[in-house]
Predict the structure.
Amino acid sequence: MILILFTLVLAEMALILSLLFRTPLRKLVIVGLDRSKQGRGPLVAKSVGGTILVFFSSTIYSVFSVQKRLSEAGFVNPTDEVLMAHRLLEASLIGFSLFLAMIIDRLHYYIKELHLLRERVEEVKNLKKDYEHKKSTDPAEVKKATQRIS
């Protein structure tokens, strides 16, 4: 289980790094995240997230029960100590994985919003340029130009 969790955390970290820097891989990741958030994707993501959250709470409960057993016994049992270390590592990896998943979701959202905002700014710049161009041409100049043409 630990190997799977380490792989998951490393994959999420690689995904975050690909989202942070503007590369061709970033566009591919954004398209993949867009498609995963369509249709049944959000339902599947919430189900998986809920399952992982339940597993996380179960692991935390197990850690507290081992800690309680250690404090009641009064001495350190080597088996309980190894079990405690294993459960703590599992709990920390699961918690970190959930945190990274939340970071990936927010990064994707902010990148999409930034892209839409840049498009809107570009439209406003074009409208302003058109307005300035129309404003700079006087009606008298337009009449003279049309008379010359005809």
